[in-house]
């Protein structure tokens, strides 16, 4: 499977990456994660129905993988919004790049801070 990320995304140059989706996006998440450099840094959110759907998801060492369970009221949109509000660069004096790939309730959305 080819990466669903656009060729213009330079994961090695990004300061942070956000990958998010529900259980239907797991194949794409795996493909993206397998193609990232070992130095990539970021967060993966995966929303599933219950604990029984949680599995091992290989990611670079500087990534955090968080499984969100709908049966416990955990929500992908709230988690993504909270992460973005914390990680998006807000300083006029430093440059940083954040990329986000979000697949939920329709086609994947791509976001970039630059």
From TrEMBL:
<dbReference type="InterPro" id="IPR039261">
    <property type="entry name" value="FNR_nucleotide-bd"/>
</dbReference>
<dbReference type="Pfam" id="PF04954">
    <property type="entry name" value="SIP"/>
</dbReference>
<dbReference type="InterPro" id="IPR007037">
    <property type="entry name" value="SIP_rossman_dom"/>
</dbReference>
<dbReference type="InterPro" id="IPR039374">
    <property type="entry name" value="SIP_fam"/>
</dbReference>
<protein>
    <submittedName>
        <fullName>NADPH-dependent ferric siderophore reductase</fullName>
    </submittedName>
</protein>
<feature type="domain" description="SIP-like Rossmann fold">
    <location>
        <begin position="15"/>
        <end position="104"/>
    </location>
</feature>
